[in-house]
Amino acid sequence: MFKIDVSQNRIMPLETKRFIELGFTERKHLQEWLENCPQALAQGDGDELLIIQKEFDGFDDTRERLDLLAIDKEGNLVIIENKLDDSGRDVVWQALKYAGYCANLSKTQVVEIYQRYLNQRAQVSGESVGNAADNLIEFLEVDDLDAAQINRIKTQRLIFVAARYRKEVTNTVLWLSQFGIACQCFKVTPYQAGGELFLNVEQIIPTPESTDFMVGMVAKEAEEKNADTELKLRHKLRLEFWEQALEAFSHSQCTLYTNISPAKDHWLSAGSGIRGMPFQLIFGKDEIRVGFSLQSGSAEVNTFVYDRLYEQKAEIESQFGQPLVWLPLPNKKACRVQFEKSVDGYDKGNWPDMISWMVTHMTRLEFALRKPLDQIKRELRQTDFTTEPVEE
Question: For the CA atoms of the chain, what is the radius of gyration?
Answer without folding.
Answer: 35
